[in-house]
Design a protein that fits this description.
The complex is a heterodimer. Chain A is α/β, with parallel strands linked by helices. Chain A is 42% helix and 15% strand. Chain A is built from six helices and five strands; from the N terminus they run βαβααβαβαβα. Helix content of chain B is 0%, strand content 55%. The chains are: A alpha/beta, B mainly beta. Chains A and B meet through helix 1 and strand 2 of A and strand 5 and strand 10 of B.
């Protein structure tokens, strides 16, 4: 049986949120799930000069999430940088994709989590959108990204039949 | 008994930026007759185009060893780093209960050529770790140089593997004969990195591998470079 997969989608311009996304991904590995790290960016983003090297590395190392990533995974972990919302430039196209998939009922049965990167409003805004898409949300107690990722992994590994 | 795994019989994948030969089943290459040897699970020979590489991905419960043949690899992981791995260097990672890492050709102009080796750990859920050693190739000329083992008195020279495996490198040339005794119940895998060698009278070329069982010793001669795994 294939290892259950989790898309870990994050936005990052300077690498800080990338590190949190990696921590959440490791939590899913702890639970024996397979994370697929995906980076969200947008043409025309203003990147601080001190982050230019990191931003170029992010462009080189990652691809953006697509519909088949989501369809082929049992869970989605959202890691938005603090201050972002579902309508932020990085996130808006991805949220629109999720909305289309929800309308096509291809998100049924999938679980989701929003990692807290330091802004409660960001978490709340994404949680509202994802709930509306039909995901089963896994909330966290505190801001431990690894524990949150592990909880998501356990939810899908434990849900597999024949285990 | 020596069983040869010829270079041209290995699995091969060409992704454009990556040309990879798989000694054992890996990814989309699957041969039930070549699922590994003893605790050796993966032995891939990778050639990565300049500036290209493997984006961040995860591993669990595996000892991962990378040996550079040519060029340099830029490595980032969730433990330490970043690191750059070059010729006459070896990287050993314990994936343990989980890590994330990426590997890219560190050069924008030159290809990289490396061997990546996966070994089953003795136990699951180990604490992840990263080691990188550099070695003097003179120490491998005409003899075996220990690169990795379960214990190390000098971690800067011998990396620690969480499995009962000793990994050696040797570089032989005309007149050299390197002998390694195999203890009762031990096995060996020999992988030719460069050139051509003679293993107990069997000719091996670059990319060839050989599984050794029920032999008292292995004898390596010829003109080339080889990795020798002493396995449980």
């Amino acid at each position: 049986m294939a290892q259950p997969a989790v898309v870990v989608a994050f936005s990052s311009r300077c690498g800080t949120t990338e590190t949190i996304a990696h921590t959440a991904a490791i939590g899913t590995v702890n639970a024996r799930a397979l994370p697929r790290l995906r980076w969200l960016t947008h043409d025309g983003l203003v990147v601080p000069p001190e982050c230019a090297v990191t931003f170029r590395r992010l462009q080189k190392e990652y691809v953006a999430p697509n519909e088949s990533d989501i369809a082929g995974s049992q869970a989605l972990i959202i890691v938005p940088s603090a201050g972002m919302t579902p309508s932020s430039n990085e996130w808006q196209p991805f949220v629109a994709l999720l909305d289309r998939m929800a309308q096509a009922r291809t998100l049924a049965g999938k679980v989701c989590a929003v990692i807290d990167t330091g802004d409660g409003h960001t978490v709340a805004s994404f949680t509202t959108v994802l709930s509306a898409c039909g995901f089963s949300l896994i909330a966290a107690d505190g801001r431990d990204a690894r524990a949150h990722g592990r909880a998501v992994g356990l939810a899908i590994v434990g849900a597999l039949p024949h285990r | 008994m020596i069983t040869i795994r010829r270079s041209e019989d290995r699995g091969y994948a060409d992704r454009g930026w990556l040309r990879s030969h798989a000694t054992f089943s890996f990814g989309s290459y699957h041969d039930p007759n070549f699922m590994g040897f003893r605790v050796l699970r993966v032995l891939n020979e990778d050639r990565i185009a300049p500036g290209k590489g493997f984006g961040p991905h995860s591993h669990r419960d595996m000892e991962i060893v990378t040996y550079m043949v040519e060029g340099r690899l830029a490595h980032r992981d969730s433990l330490t780093g970043p690191h750059v791995l070059g010729r006459h260097e070896l990287q050993a990672m314990t994936a343990g209960d989980g890590l994330v890492h990426s590997e890219f050709n560190a050069s924008e102009t030159e290809p990289s050529h490396s061997l990546q080796i996966w070994i089953d750990p003795q136990t699951e859920d180990l604490t992840p770790s990263y080691q990188q050693i550099a070695f003097d190739p003179e120490g491998a000329r005409g003899r075996l140089l220990l690169l990795a083992a379960p214990t190390s008195s000098d971690p800067a020279r011998t990396a620690i593997i969480r499995q009962d495996v000793q990994l050696y490198v040797t570089e032989v040339s005309a007149g050299d004969s390197v002998i390694h005794a195999l203890r009762e119940g031990r096995h060996a895998w020999i992988q030719v990195v460069r050139g051509a060698i003679d293993l107990n009278g069997v000719a091996l070329q670059q990319g060839d591998g050989a599984a050794v069982s029920d032999e008292r010793e292995i004898r390596v001669s010829g003109d080339g470079e080889a990795l020798v795994f002493d396995l449980p």
